[in-house]
Each structure stands twice: as C-alpha cells, then as structure tokens.
Amino acid sequence: MLLPYNEIRLEFDNEISNNIIELSELFHNNRIMLVYDNSNSNDLPMFGVISKIIKKVELPNGKTRIVIKGEKRAKVLEYLNKDKTDEVLESIVEEIEDINLDVEEEKVIIKKLLKELDSAIKDIPYLSNSSINLIKSSNDLSMVTDVIASSLPISLKRVEEYLYECNSTKRASMIVSDTEKERKIVNLEKNIDLKVKEEIDDHQKEFILREKIKLMKEELGDESGNEIDELNEKIESLDAPKRIKDRLYKELNKYENTNKSHPEASIIRNYIDWLLNLPWNIYTTDNTDLNSVREYLDQTHYDISNVKDRIIEYLAVKQMSNNLRSPIICLVGPPGVGKTSLAYSIAKALNRNFVKISVGGVSDESEIKGHRKAYIASSPGRIISSMKKAKSNNPVFLIDEIDKMSSGINGDPRSSLLEVLDPEQNKYFSDNYIEEEYDLSNVMFILTANYIDDIPKELKDRLEVINLSGYTIYEKMDIIKNHLMSKVLKENGLNDIDITDEALLSIIRYYTRESGVREVERLLSQIVRKVVTDIVLNKKDNELVTIKESDLVKYLGKKKYHYTNKITSNVGIVNGLAYTSFGGDTLPIEVNYYKGDGKLVLTGSLGDVMKESAIIALSYLKSNYKYYNVDYDKLINNDIHIHVLEGAIPKDGPSAGIALLTALISGLTNTKIRSNLAMTGEISLRGSVLPIGGLKEKAMGAHMKGIKDIIIPYDNLKDLDDVPKEIKKDIHFIPVRNYKEVMKYIWRKNDWYK
Ligand code: ADP
User: Fold this and answer.
1) Is 494 exposed, middle or buried (0-12, 13-18, 19+ CB in 10 A)?
2) How do residues 514-568 score in pLDDT, each as one tens digit?
3) Ligand 1 atom with the shortest distance to the CA of 304
4) Which one, 112, 229, 386, 667, has the greatest CB density within 10 A?
5) How does pLDDT run across 155-172, given as a tens digit for each residue?
6) Which of 142, 150, 655, 666 is the catalytic position?
7) Phi, psi at residue 508, to the nearest 5°?
8) For the whole model, what pTM was predicted?
9) Sign of dihedral through CA atoms 462, 464, 367, 216?
10) CA-based radius of gyration for the chain
11) C-alpha distances in angstroms, 557 versus 169, 525, 528, 561?
C-alpha cells in the first residue's frame, strides 16, 4: 500500500502491466491510480492514491522495472469499464486536498512531532535516517505525516487507516500514539532481554564464586569458613616479637577489607601465612655435653678423628665464649666424603633441627634474599624458606657448594650470603619478601665446598676451614663394613648380605674412581636391590646371599676402570699431579718437537700461571742445557709443543713446574721415564723447587692410579704427616730442593728398570 510522498519499486513481465504503463505514458502523463483492494466483493474501492511513474527500466532478462511515487489521495468518481475482471481499468478521479491548519500551527505540530520522534528514534530502530532527514527539513504536515506513517512498523490495516485519513493533524496524533505503543513494546522486549540476561549472569556469578570459595577452603584445609576469626586466634597465640604481631594484625585488617576474588587478597593471605609459620621465638635446647656429641660423631662416622677433634674444639670454644664473632665451620673436600652427613650428625648430637640448601649455580641475589611482594608469585629467598622448614630459630643450617656460586646480572648472591653469615648483620637479616627483620644469630651455619681456592675471598676470611680429603681403599673398606652396608641393607629391607673382601676391593678399584664413598654406596644399593628383587620374584627364602668377586659382572656389569701394576717407560711423557674439586689425580704431560724456530706451543686448557710455569721451565733449560745433555741446536731450530692430557678440563697453578721441565728434557734427550713415577713442585727460574698445596689429596689420587714413587718439594716433607699410613707404605716419597736432584734421581733410578 503506497501512501503519498512515498515510493515503491515494481518489477513485472506480464502483458497487462505493460499495457497499463503504456496507456499511462501515452494518455495520462505517467500517472496511474493505485487502490487497495481487500474486499471479496465485485465492487472496486472508490479511494486511492494518484501516483506517478518516475522511472522505467527494461531489464536484460526481459522484465520491466518501474519506480512509482505516491502523489495525492484521490476519490474515484467513476470506473469507465466497471467489470473488475477487465484487464485494464480506466477511471475518472478527483484529487482530495488534505485538511490542513494554517502554516504556523502546522509548524508547531511538526516541531512537537519531531520532538516526540527524536526520543522515539533512540528506542525504535525502525525509522530510517533518510526519512528522518527528509522530515526535519519540511514544513508540510501532510508530507511529514505520510512519510512517517509508512516508516512505522504497523499493520497493513493501520496503513489503510492512515490512507483514509485526510486530516493531517489527526494523522499526526495517530503517529504519536503509534510510536508510543511501539516504544512500549520495544522497552518491554528490552526489559525481558535484560531480565533473561541477568538471570544467566547471576547464575554464573554465583557458580564462579562458589567454586572459588570451595577451592580456597580446600587449599587452606579450612571447612569452618570463619577464616578471619581463626587467623586472629593464630596471631594471638603466636610467639613472636611485638612488631611482628602488630604487622600481622595490620595485614589481617587489610585482608578483611579486600575483595576475596581480587588477586591482592591472596597476596596478603600468603604473606600472613609466611609470618605465622616462621619460628620467631622457638628454640630447641642444646645438648651441652660435648663428650656425648663426640660419641655420636664416632658412631656415625668412621675415622676422620682430626676432623671430629676440630669440630668438638669449635663447639667447646663457642660454648665457653658465646662469642658472636666466632668463625663459621666450612667443610672442604671432594664429593662423597661425608660433609653433609657430618653436618647432619652434628645437628642430631646437639639436639638441633637440621636444614640444608645448596647454593651451587646460584647467580641471583633474590634466591638468597627473596622477591619483593609486588611481584606475582613472589616468595621469600632460600634462607627464610629454610627457616620455616627448620621450625626452630636455632637449627644447624648447612649451605652446600659455596664455591660454586657466581655473580649474575641480578646482583651478587655472595654479598647477600655475607649478610646472612656475618654475626653483626644477621641479627637483623632482612628478606625482600618478609620485609620485617629476622634474627639469624642463633643459627649454627655450616658451609661446604669442594675446592678451597674457589671460595670467594671475602667469605674465606670468616671461615674455619676443615679439610676432608678423601679415603684410601682400606678406609673405604672400613666405612662400608661399619656404616654404609647396614644403611643400604636397611633402606632396601634386607636383613643381611655377605660380600667378600675381595669383592669389595674389586668394587672400589674397578668400578669406582672417587675420593669419597658416594659411588660405592650407589653400587652397593644396586647389588642389594637386585638380590631383593631375586628373592621376591622367585619366592626364595630370605637366606643369606653371598657375593663373590666373580659375581660382580652379574650385578654391576663389566669393570669400568683399569688398575694396572704394569710399568712402562716412555719418552716425553711425565706424570704431574693435580688437586681438583674431585680430589687428587695424576696429570700426564706430553712433549714433542718439530722443525721450527724455537716457538713454544701450549695446549690442554691451561691457565695463565701454568703457562708461565712452562715458559720458566723452557728458559731454565735453555740456560742449563749442557748439564742435561740437551742439544742446543734442537732448542733453537725446533718448535716445542707441550700438551697436558684430558685437554678439555681447565687446569692451572704452578705445581706442575718440575713435571713440565722433566717432560721437556725427556723429549729432547730421548730419556725414558717410568709410568709409575709422578712428581709435583713449582720451579723457579734458577731451578729451585718450591712447595705446593694438597699433597695428601695428590698422594691419594696417585695411589689410586698405582703410582709407586712421587718426587716432592723438600718443604712439603712436613705434610707427609697427614698422608695415611697405608699410602706411605705403598708409595716412596723423594724430597728435592732443586731441579738437579730430580734429574739425578731419574738418571740413577731409571737404570733399575732398563
Ligand atoms: P658429601 O656431602 O661430602 O658430598 P655425603 O655426606 O653425602 O658426602 O656422604 C655420602 C655418603 O657417604 C653418605 O651416605 C655418608 O653417610 C657416607 N660417608 C661418608 N664419609 C663417611 C664416614 N667417614 N663414615 C661413614 N659414612 C660416611
């Protein structure tokens, strides 16, 4: 149904319509009369809209498209061919003028109408912008009402009413009532939408909250729900300094006033838990009877009586003086020599709790001192975390591997560790997370390191270093029999096992190469596990199983190391001795030379000091070549290459001096050197042999490799007191003051083996 001022588009391809259009074009100035026929009667409607064809297009598919615009309401005065079934109807019509008010009054009504519509537009999305613009620029109420009416989402019936209404003012009030109705409908829809949505949201919100609460409760093991009360009670009964309790009350208050679904709430809650769980004023009572302490150490650890002596001395002095500035014990030695287990035994014997951290590889200050609370997932550093585990304020606190710390981009953990250990500072230790000072002055710190030279100097100054250098084969046998075996049996639930001495010796010699007993312990465990499995699988009685040397292949596989007493003699190969973080070892040095101009080539990852030793050795040889029967031409017209074996392992220190020089002389003079001879000593430019460190460890390492003679600096003779008896029985030590004595010994003694 077309109202005046509106347009419709029609498409058709039937003849009748074509005829109508043609007639209209030819005789009626493009006008046609549109009537709305909704009756079933034969009578045609006598009312309609005179419209104009304003556009006509012949489409490629043969159809015709026209656009018709409504112009005026009109009355049909007469149909010229009355029968409705006729194809083309012609009629005589009379235009009907709208009943209008005067222009000013219309203006007022239009204004009102627009205002009404303005607010309607927001609520009713049906009115198109283009019609709105059209209306706004017009003063003609007839047009305005007809345009609006045909935009409204109303029924055909209602449009018909608009069509028959020739009073524009009335049409305006119809519009107002229609938009009002429409607005109500739209609002109602919106409300319903909103209600439905709210219901869903509420549902979800409640579900999520319930889940959260459930999880929090589970996490806290708290079913009662009265969390704040409980925390209050806990703070009240906490044995802590007043400042800590005050802080806790403050934090609890903050927690109470924070929305629990907010992340801040769990940060505060976490912090409260930390403060609540630290041992502020909890102490264990020390066992002051040092005799019983000594007894306990003897029970748990074989031998190492000098180590135990020093520990007892240390404890005695500490007890007497209660001196805050007393140094801190640092146990130094290769892995598996019992540093950790000794510290644990000290704690047990003193009736103190025990905690341990390892700082090997730590390069970040925050690992020691924690992260600020502001970080997500921030937490205290390892010191405070361990104090929580210790559950008392005065535990024995083992800090492992202090020689393996390094300084990284986030501060130097070594200086933080100093704060921890310094008796003047550690009373007020402050962790970044905890913020409140924590008193560490009652803690008994024990440190461990593998290699003394790698301990940072500022730390070393405060330490009481106690060396544990490793065990001889016989000591290892005793440790196994008296301590490790029963421990391993207990761990695996076996009553007893019989491993023969030959089998044990073979495990130590051919399956391990270590200063300590960790690897041996592991292998014994492996054997016992296999025995237990066999008993369980084959439902055997728990009879005593005997393990002989010949059974080892079955339990441990093929031998891993060779231990040979076979002696060879070689030109240009000499055994030096090294002392590393794994204990002592031999350090084979090779020399070769070839045509050149006297250059010295050094390989084997040597440090600066060791390189200088090689240069000193060569210089000494150049100035004393005659004495050692070296052809001077060889020294001048050759390049000399020195290589220290196991090239990938870094080596340094001056103690290889005499071994480097001996290798040079051997290589250049074709003198054979025995493979069971080793030497250690620094050489000076004028040939003096100067003392070295770690003789005990080096001797033990050499012993494991089957070395029979070791040339040592004369000034190290006193250190032989520390070398175990069994080793002194097997190895002959030759003290020398200057290098000439080294070669004299070799020239003399090599004859024996020729
Ligand atoms: P470290 O800390 O020096 O690397 P551990 O303390 O871990 O070595 O010792 C390794 C194993 O060797 C432990 O089971 C320990 O009980 C045992 N052990 C080491 N030395 C002895 C000893 N002298 N007496 C008894 N057991 C020892």
Assistant:
1) middle
2) 888 999 999 999 999 998 888 888 877 767 888 898 989 988 988 887 765 567 7
3) 23
4) 667
5) 888 888 898 888 888 888
6) 655
7) -65, -40
8) 0.61
9) negative
10) 52
11) 111, 14, 15, 12
